[in-house]
């Protein structure tokens, strides 16, 4: 089989396409013919060597494909089923716990940049009905992260205000989920072209954060001084102060990303005086993914796919991701 693997010490120039023996499913596993994967920031950090991995690690946490062989004792899936990876194969349900979150594909274990993957059946879910492999491959990391922030750690209701940052996969899924739930959405970006696209997707208001650096106050103004119920916070320390400023009394911030750095000042007085809750979000459980898929099927949501790359051009796909020219998800066809 063909795989895309990473040689030490990492870096896009050290991604190589090679041929390896086809895997065989062990007891409790299924053999999946992978049809598509999609890029996430986590995958990029791994590829750059920011998260150390063994030499030759097969990359990518997201994967969608078809079961071609079933190992001993597997009843969850059968040959021919269309399946989807989970970011944490060991996190079935319940709250996050360390032992559930150790085996991330493409990081702690081999991932889905391969034509064939033998994976534990309990670490997979079905794909949404009627979705292509490319569409489904956008879900396990980005979509589930947005879903957990909005619907698990918070519980968005019709009429609520949600603020999203940027135009990456998590933020666009958050916009789509929020609108499907009847919420009102304020979206930020520094690109007028991308702001126009966000409006087309359903954003009620958009803010150019370069033109309006105090966008937290602008969000308060848009909501008639009340503030937003939920912020999908992907920037980290460089945007946290504005996210706090945007929130209503008792609002919620889903802290998801660190695009502006891994540490910084936080206006703690504003945080506690407004009784704001901050939840750290690292994707979610298999049960949450199954709940999200059910909601997707009932709402008719479809992912926004920016670009397609073949497996052989995985390094080029990461370079395109780094350029920040994409809008939505970048898919790797396998």
From TrEMBL:
Q: Which domain of life is it from?
A: Bacteria
Q: CDD domains of this UniProt entry?
A: MDR7 (cd08276)
The Swiss-Prot or TrEMBL record annotates one GO molecular function as:
oxidoreductase activity
What Gene3D superfamilies does the database record attribute to this sequence? Medium-chain alcohol dehydrogenases, catalytic domain, NAD(P)-binding Rossmann-like Domain
What InterPro entries does the entry give?
ADH-like_C, ADH-like_N, ER, GroES-like_sf, NAD(P)-bd_dom_sf, Zinc_ADH-like
> Enoyl reductase (ER) domain: which residues?
10-332
What SUPFAM superfamilies does the annotation carry?
GroES-like, NAD(P)-binding Rossmann-fold domains
Protein name (Swiss-Prot/TrEMBL): NAD(P)-dependent alcohol dehydrogenase
